[in-house]
Amino acid sequence: MIKNVILIIAVLFLLGCSEKLEQKQNDSISKKVDSLIQLSSNISFNDSIRTVFLSKADNQIDKIKNDSLKAHLLIRTTYGSLMLGDFKEYGRKSKQILKFSLDRKDTIALTRAYSYLGYFYQFEYKVDSAYYFYNKALHLFELREDKINEGRMLLSMATLQEDVKDFTGSEINAIKAISKLEGTDEFRSLYLAYNSLAINNKNLGKFNLSIQNFEKSKSYLSKIKNNQFLYATTYNNIGRVYAKQGNHIVALDSYNKALEIKNLNIRNPRLYAMALDNKAYSKFILEELSEIPALFYKSLQIRDSLQIKDGMVASYHHLAEYNLSKHDTLKALQYGLLSKNIAKEINYNDGLLESYKLLSKISQGTKGKQYLNKYIQLSDSLQQQERVVREKFTRIAYETDEVIQENKKTQEKNYLLMLILIITSVFFLLIYFIIRQRSKNKELEFAQKEDKSNIEIYNLMLSQQKMFNEGSVNEQNRISRDLHDGVLGRLFGTRLSLDAFNEGVSENDIKAREKNINELQSIEEEIREISHNLKLTEFNNNSSFKVLVEQLMEKQSKITSFNFQLNFDKNIDWENISNTIKINCYRILQEAIQNINKYSEAKKVIISFTKAENNLLFCIEDNGIGFNTKAKSKGIGLKNIRSRVNDLKGKVNINSVKDKGTKITIEISLRV
Whole-prediction pTM value? Predict the structure, then answer.
């Protein structure tokens, strides 16, 4: 027996010594790793020497048995691999960190592994995998309430969505990123977030909003070091928005501002060549041909010397367009084919798509039709691929949110059960102490009376005490019966009834369930009525009437491809105009635009809101085919317009001339 005890003590002692020795070895290795990582970060050494130091650090890390410590040291060397541009090693280490952190349930290392892998797969152009890991990292940062890293992950996800043309989803995540980052000193991330938001605005046709957000992105540039090339990027992007609008004069001004950045052609020739090519194209569109095609050739020369192949695709494409405009189809075809071949070589699908489209215009006959068919096939294929990826993004976000909601429900349920248990325990403890205290008080009272009473009173007290005890026992028995036969019986019966309702199929059970269903239907009707009453809140003072009108026109103009112009008098205070006027104006506009799309064949529509004294003048004008205002109309559109104006006690005038268009003028009093 004594020998066994001595043996156990010896084993425990050896284990303790072993743990101390292991800890000492880990500390020694950690110091070596720190030293090697610092050497690998020293930019005075060339990359090959820095890589050797980093490799030695990794070899030291392999000697550590503690996975948690391994993971945290690997995080540092992984970042070093990224800085040295070794993406293969960066990805391998990131996966290793993920394994260690999952094994040890180390959420800090796990968060870093997810974000690293997101960036790795983004570099590998595996956008669905990148989005998956960024989304994983995002939710862990949310749990830690790390808003800066939340914003960074949202920005990365927005960039991926932009790549697959999920512009609406990208816009939403860019806005979320801004909400997380605003108020912090993450000025570069805020610049990138507003820049991303502006690009999505442009792609969604929200050109004015795009310009506004590019201007907001510029407001952060003064707070960033070495910002001159970011200014050039922003001016170039703003120019592209104006060019997309067809305003090439203003676009030229932005391109020139980008090109005026000092040493741009030396420090960032890629950006310089891009801005130069964009400038040349706007001049070509404006028919300012004095510097054309020299500017195109200059941009192409830079891109060709640096092998910027996506840029070469754009340059050859623009030269093809230029020569086509000069009716030199031979040169146009030559440049178009160069653009197509390079785009195909580098798998630049957007460039290849545009090349096919241009070649279908240049080529004649069967060849032109072949290029057009290739354009259609590639376009359909790309749209299908992008749709699949967007669906994956949605599924990833949905499944993650579903898990979070389930966890929340479980936590809430556990919290409720714990709360009920605590309240019940406190209640019974309180009852126990009250009864115990009362009992002590009674005993003290009886003792005092016993000391003061004589034998006869003492005997009487004994009798009374006996009667009291009997009554107390009877009362306790009564309460016990009531609790057992009454409350417990009702609880038991209710439970059985509920069980029966869950599984029973009798008429009574069905009626009971029907009763509950009817009650639910009643609640549903009440909710529907409330919802109907709240319908008009779409036009409450918190909503922007101007934005609603803009959104309506943007959507409706796409149906028959008409251009529109909105004129809002600055003197109109929309917040102080009643909701009744605003909603009727909006409905009138809906009716009018619907008629324009159906009948007018208009190419331009002008909507004007002006204020004259205390009256609101609302005008809808188009350049369509017109109609006979005196003829009896079969539709109800114009009747609805007149009816709404009458409800507002206003005036309406409809003037239409055949082949010259229609003008509807409405005058509404703003007097309360």
Answer: 0.55
